[in-house]
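Appendix B. One record, verbatim.
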Amino acid sequence: MRLVLLGPPGAGKGTQASAIVKKYNIPHISTGDIFRANIKEGTELGKKAKEYMDKGLLVPDDVVVSIVKDRLTKEDCKEGFLLDGFPRTVNQADALDKELSQMGIKLDKVVNIDADKEILIARAIGRRICRECGATYHIKFNPSKVENVCDIEGGQLFQRDDDKEETVAKRIEVYLKETQPLIDYYKEKGLILNVDGTKPINEIFEEIVKALGR
């Protein structure tokens, strides 16, 4: 199963990504994680990316695509993958298509988790993260058993600065504006799978699995 996961902040992408990779036994590939791994390992691609990141600049598409392509050639991607955070633009999507074509593979679906802006804001501002393991909770939709304490590690839960209401609203607006052309791009290719992100977590996952057909 070769998938791309799209969804604005607060749509529950992280939760669904965890369930999807477990169900289909495929790696969850985040561009942020790939960048950090390449930089830590001191690879040539990592050094290139770091040059831009240190200057506060966006990493150019050709570097991003090269890093993603390198990751997709690893053994654990043989049976599939879940791309999260990439592609972000139509140019990146087009470049990804070309690279996948050269590898003799293609995407199965692009899962787009959708929800109203007001709901997304409410979800995001209620999100809490474990300082120890990074596990995600929500004070209303997915609370920890003990308030502000992680069920897994027992670490303290906190609210990220970018989960504050004003910041979240701006991030959602930017995301929706920038991502719509990407959604249209994949819709034209018949790959978009729109999922109602306002439903309970388990229902969203069931809808994704049913639509994927396996």
